[in-house]
Design brief:
The complex is a heterodimer. Chain A is an all-alpha fold. Chain A contains 19 helices and two strands. In chain A, a hairpin with a 2-residue loop joins strand 1 and strand 2. In chain A, helix 6 packs antiparallel against helix 7 and helix 12 packs antiparallel against helix 13. Chain A is globular and about 80 Å long. By secondary structure, chain B is α+β, with helices and mostly antiparallel strands. Chain B has one domain: Alpha-Beta Plaits (2-Layer Sandwich), CATH 3.30.70. Helices cover 25% and strands 17% of the residues of chain B. Chain B starts with a helix and ends in a 7-residue tail after the last strand. Classes of the chains: A mainly alpha, B alpha+beta. At the A-B interface, helix 8 of A face strand 2, helix 5 and strand 6 of B.
Chain lengths: 479, 246
């Protein structure tokens, strides 16, 4: 791709600046930059890390260490140090697990689904989304371990020939969970890595010292030949098709963890699509949050433009509408069904002890959908940051309500209980949030955050043609 | 020769399998909690203390649910002992990833402590909430440690345990009967709660034997099963008359 100037010469673009109409001036893929400028703009924030960066790393590491202490404390003294109890066997741990699995869904949505639909605005944000998927899944994957009563026996869930002469029980949704999450983690990591290879080669050619050694290893000897590009494209096309069923299965299975039990309000057929919709909603919102922050802190204004926030905001809004629809479709059936236990659960949620959480959930999930309908708000990074953060507050609350809220009440009123998290749970949850941010910012300093080759490739799709006195972009099929 | 007898006894048992079950006569239950105490003593169930009980960490394999009925001054107390229902279609069984809970051929819902890794999925799936989790290391303050039952293992922290219908007593009776070459008689097996119930509200026996006291009572018109509409097919049958005032 280093000879872009040569390739660009096939259209009738004159030398120097062209006056584009306002509609096109903002477009990243039409921006008139040379390859060297793009490379430099991506590599500079990677190499330059100020004191602020290291202070952030130190604070995050401290939170992680404290969380590890809390986890060790809980393993040593027993699960009772957490607030979970009988009947609320699952608490903040499982709620946060569902939250992280949900966050992980946006990466595939952005890079695989939008890739298949050939939505070109995805190009600068795919890597950020894929990294978010991988790290959110890593954090989610911790919870099944954290949550185990005897975590030192976790490998009993793995199918391997053993002296107990036992296979794991593949009837159990927890086994499906494990298989699905491992598959998704491996798939999305490979997907992230595949798309990284050409950029690793680019970084290799522009770095010295330990970075050079690292990038040389990771680039796998990439030279950018015709055959290599062909194979890369084929691999990415195959991956983006097969990862979509995996992505749908993961959150369906998480939903079935709940839905296959007889617990009222969990035992519902709509849970799987409802969870997927919620996952996409919170994941896309988290991606928008991250992009706004990264754009500011890594000075990537060149690549993350209004058009991207606009398009992402629209996607968030559509996912939000979907979430509202699925929530309502599930709720109204149970409300009208008026089963005694369900009635008690709904009453407790809407007007009882959990009402503050419920109304927080509804406000935080519905309000942004209304506001994101306006282009001015979608394209304003500050508003977008505020509303997408609000969405994730709402979605986290939703998970807490689903897990904790529905376990407090069940068939025999004598067993009704209540739940309050302890410092152990809060520390461990904080640990995974800090862990996610730490992994993400370290990643963004080691790996080109913006996929350079995707942008260059996207630019090739467009050539400027003159119609009368107007320059208009025309798109070509290159996939 | 003894071996031949044993094989034939076992074959007969397979043809006409037992289904252990319990009948609980609510019209007799006084809510005295003797069964709860007996169960704790028999099965080495830890006593967690006031503070942890307040955090819903108490561990009872059988509990007396008390419900108030009516308005003051015409208030009635209702008592209902609830223990593991040993469901024929147990919701807890398919969800365990490591087969720690499974169904024995004799209809017991067995919990294999050594296999359990503590996902607590069975507890979430159980509609009766009779599964108890070891939130901490088991602790037996003096003098309770003097009376630990050697027939029952003390469970580790981090695993689920629950009512076993005193499987150690069932096995003892079966082995004794087997050794002397006879059948297990009705009423011979007595779980600790049954043995200790002053008004004999609990009756244990083989529900597949039409002659047993338990199965005869189970056919009573007063009989019902807890949350029967869920289709869990419990092996615990409750008896309750319409107009009794307990």
């Amino acid at each position: 791709m280093s000879d872009r100037e040569h390739m660009a010469g096939d259209s009738d673009v004159p030398e120097g600046q062209i006056e584009l109409s306002e509609e096109y001036r903002e477009r990243l893929l039409l921006a008139q930059r040379t390859d060297a400028e793009i490379n430099a703009a991506v590599l500079r924030p990677m190499m330059e890390t100020g004191p602020k960066f290291w202070i952030t790393v130190a604070i995050l590491s401290a939170i992680i260490l404290w969380g590890l202490y809390a986890w060790g404390y809980m393993i040593y003294w027993g699960m009772g140090t957490a607030g979970i109890n009988n009947p609320v066997y699952w608490g903040l741990f499982i709620a946060t697990f569902v939250f992280w699995v949900g966050i992980s869904h946006a990466g595939t949505m952005i890079s695989a689904v939008l890739r298949i639909f050939k939505a070109d605005w995805r190009r600068p944000i795919t890597r950020g989304a894929e990294a978010m998927t991988a790290f959110a899944l890593l954090m989610a994957g911790l919870y099944p371990f954290i949550h185990l009563g005897r975590v030192w026996k976790f490998y009993w869930m793995l199918p391997y020939p053993n002296n107990r002469f036992m296979w794991p029980n593949f009837q159990s949704p927890l086994m499906w969970d494990m298989v699905a999450i491992f598959t998704y983690l491996i798939g999305s990591s490979l997907y992230l890595y595949l798309a990284l290879i050409p950029d690793m080669a680019m970084a290799r050619d522009h770095s010295v010292g330990w970075r050079y050694k690292l990038y040389r290893t990771l680039a796998l000897g990439w030279r950018g030949t015709e055959g290599e590009w062909h194979k890369l494209h084929r691999a990415l096309n195959i991956f983006s098709v097969i990862i979509i069923p995996v992505f749908l299965s993961v959150h369906s299975i998480v939903a079935w963890d709940f839905a296959i039990t007889l617990q009222p309000r969990w035992h519902s057929t709509i849970f799987a699509p409802y969870f997927i919709m919620g996952a996409v909603y919170s994941g896309l919102a988290a991606l928008a949050t991250i992009l706004v922050i990264v754009r500011k802190s890594m000075r990537l204004e060149e690549f993350l433009r209004r058009e991207h926030f606009d398009a992402l905001g629209k996607l968030v809004m559509v996912a939000g509408l979907g979430w509202i629809y699925f929530w309502f479709a599930g709720f109204i059936v149970e409300w009208y069904g008026n089963d005694p236990v369900t009635r008690e659960l709904i009453h407790d949620e809407v007007a009882g002890k959990l009402a503050p959480l419920f109304w927080l959930q509804m406000t935080a999930n519905i309000l942004p959908v209304i506001f994101l309908a306006f282009r001015k708000i979608r394209t304003n990074p500050k508003w977008l940051l505020g509303f997408t953060l609000l969405i994730n507050v709402g979605m986290y609350t939703e998970r807490v309500l689903i897990v904790v809220g529905n376990m407090q009440r069940n068939y025999l009123p004598f067993d009704w209980g209540t739940y309050k998290p302890t410092w152990v749970e809060i520390s461990i949850v904080a640990m995974t949030f800090a862990g996610f941010i730490l992994l993400y910012i370290l990643f963004s300093r080691i790996v080109p955050y913006v996929p350079v080759w995707e942008i260059k490739e996207g630019r090739l799709r467009y050539s400027l043609r003159r119609i009368g006195r107007l320059w208009v972009p025309t798109a070509a099929e290159i996939d | 020769m003894a071996k031949a007898v044993r094989v034939s006894a076992k074959e007969k048992q397979d043809e006409n399998r037992r289904r252990w079950g319990m009948v609980i006569d609510l019209d007799r239950c006084t809510g005295c909690q003797a069964c709860v105490v007996a169960c704790h003593a028999e099965n080495n169930v830890p006593v967690v203390g006031e503070q942890e009980a307040a955090r819903s960490h108490s561990m009872h394999w059988i509990r007396i649910e008390r419900y108030w009925e009516g308005e003051y001054p015409n208030v009635k107390a209702r008592f209902m002992p609830v223990l593991c229902q040993h469901c024929g279609e147990a919701p807890c069984e398919p969800v365990c990833p490591v087969f720690a809970t499974y169904h024995t051929p004799e209809g017991l819902n067995a919990q294999v402590y050594n296999r359990c890794i503590g996902t607590r999925y069975c507890g979430s799936a159980c509609p009766y909430k009779v599964r108890v989790f070891n939130w901490f290391r088991p602790d037996f303050p003096e003098p309770l440690e003097q009376q630990l039952n050697p027939d029952v293992s003390v469970r580790q922290r981090g695993i689920i345990e629950k009512c076993s219908f005193c499987v150690q007593r069932i096995r003892r009776v079966e082995l004794d009967a087997d050794a002397s070459g006879r059948e297990v008689e009705d009423g011979e097996v007595q779980p600790a709660c049954v043995q200790s119930c002053p008004p004999s509200a609990l009756i244990f026996g083989d529900l597949n034997d039409p002659e047993s006291e338990a199965s005869q009572l189970a056919r009573s018109r007063r009989a019902f099963r807890l949350l029967d509409f869920l289709g869990t097919d419990p092996a615990v049958i409750y008896l309750k008359g319409g107009e009794t005032n307990v």
